Amino acid sequence: MPESLVIAIIIAIPVLLGTGIIWPRLFHSLSDEGAVKWYTKSAEHGDARSQLILGLKYWSGQGVSQSNEEAVRWFTKSAEQGYADAVFYLGTMYMEGREIEFGMMYRNHMTL
Fold first, then answer.
1. Which Gene3D superfamilies match (predicted)?
2. What's the CATH number where 11 sits?
């Protein structure tokens, strides 16, 4: 099966079902690293939920090396598409003093 078809199916399943309930279960059986691989492919194709999840993975260091800058980058991409949870996590990172500057959010062309 071509990789692009797999990515399209991963993105389409929650849309076709009309819920996000299947999303966490889809990658449940994968290792953290395996899940990150597929979330990355989906996020790079513009899926806001995958971008949010990748931000959370980078923030916590689950399946990837912990990186506040990468977390901000993925949260910002998701927030720019109107994903409110991503805006919440950006604000939370700033409020907790996670070694990010408020200006870091603006470097990625985000406006609050």
1. Tetratricopeptide repeat domain
2. 1.25.40.10
